[in-house]
Backbone:
């Protein structure tokens, strides 16, 4: 664990964690897919002091009729937010079950350049057979096979981020040299389903390696910076956190808070008339803000951070911003990201050395 500071992330995809959240949103459904909407939500989160925002994604539209469905790609939204925010971390969800890891690594490296070192990556899987058809790929139906794709995808992305050494870019007008070719490297990856030679087409990210978040039961702990763990109660979360084996651990929490006009229980019941709030095995808090604060304080003994999934963003995010984050700050349980710091620095993670540069140094020392 990194210390007493609890890092607080929030998922801001769509209108909230409940599939019918749009029915209580403070905007008409057509505004959901506008840049102004996502920028407003991110601005509220940044001003409140959240450590990072995550943006869910998948090749298939979220939800089903009669609810409005649709989303803009998470990487595209993240790039827009990277240019319109200044301190908060930004981590899009990008499955690599079918996506090409080479392209994913390039997109994420570019995102980190735009964000000046504030980017992360939430690794997930595409489980639906319809996703395979949408990609035009053979179905990866087995859970172990999907985990293999995630493992190989992360390994390739990390290797490609290192395929440019930090000083590979020269930009020498006097000598008309842009790159030092000796500092670009082939990664020569060969997995069970594909091979990638490299090098990347984007210079090494400012962080060296983006912060990679994911489930330790789906991605090897050695490939993750932050494990996202579930559990329906504190004991289950604590057990999962202790077994994660990653530098940092975040607990997944679904939240529905009392608002000035309506209790959390009434809000949930109102939405349950239209669709069920699916149980994903996560810790769930339904109630007043002070009880959530107490829960987070207790969780701080077991995890380094939490990722909150608000029932309805337009209703819960203001309460989180006005009551929860300030209370955590006052008790020195949480701190806002500082201007000019990378996401790795905010989380207390070191900037990793380039594997190829380090190998060259070791080879030179061995001579």
Residues:
């Amino acid at each position: 664990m990194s210390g007493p500071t609890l890092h607080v992330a929030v998922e801001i995809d769509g209108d909230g964690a409940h599939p019918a959240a749009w029915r209580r949103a403070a905007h008409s459904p057509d505004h959901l897919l506008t840049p102004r909407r996502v920028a407003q939500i991110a601005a509220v989160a940044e001003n409140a002091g959240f450590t990072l925002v995550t943006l869910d994604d998948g090749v298939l539209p979220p939800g089903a009729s009669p609810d409005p469905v649709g989303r803009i790609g998470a990487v595209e939204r993240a790039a827009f937010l990277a240019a319109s925010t200044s301190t908060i971390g930004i981590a899009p969800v990008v499955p690599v079950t079918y996506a090409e890891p080479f392209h994913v690594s390039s997109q994420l490296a570019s995102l980190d350049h735009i964000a000046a070192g504030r980017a992360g990556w939430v690794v997930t899987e595409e489980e639906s057979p319809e996703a395979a058809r949408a990609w035009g790929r053979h179905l990866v139906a087995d859970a172990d096979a999907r985990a293999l794709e995630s493992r190989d995808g992360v390994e390739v992305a990390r290797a490609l981020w290192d395929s440019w050494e930090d000083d590979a870019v020269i930009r020498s007008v006097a000598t008309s040299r842009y790159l030092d070719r000796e500092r670009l490297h082939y990664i020569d990856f060969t997995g069970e389903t594909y091979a990638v030679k490299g090098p990347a087409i984007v210079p090494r990210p400012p962080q060296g390696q983006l912060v990679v978040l994911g489930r330790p039961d789906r991605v090897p702990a050695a490939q993750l910076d932050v494990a996202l763990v579930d559990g329906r109660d504190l004991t289950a979360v604590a057990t999962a956190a202790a077994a994660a084996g990653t530098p940092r651990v975040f607990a997944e929490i679904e939240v529905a808070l009392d608002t000035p006009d309506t209790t959390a229980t009434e809000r949930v019941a109102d939405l349950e008339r239209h669709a069920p709030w699916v149980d994903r095995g996560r810790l769930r808090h339904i109630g007043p803000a002070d009880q959530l604060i107490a829960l987070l304080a207790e969780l701080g003994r077991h995890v380094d951070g939490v990722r909150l999934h608000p029932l309805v963003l337009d209703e819960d995010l203001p309460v989180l911003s006005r009551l929860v984050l300030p209370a955590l700050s006052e008790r020195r349980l949480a701190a806002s990201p500082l201007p000019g710091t990378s996401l790795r620095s905010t989380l207390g993670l070191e900037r990793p050395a380039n594997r190829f540069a380090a190998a060259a140094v070791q080879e030179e020392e061995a001579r």
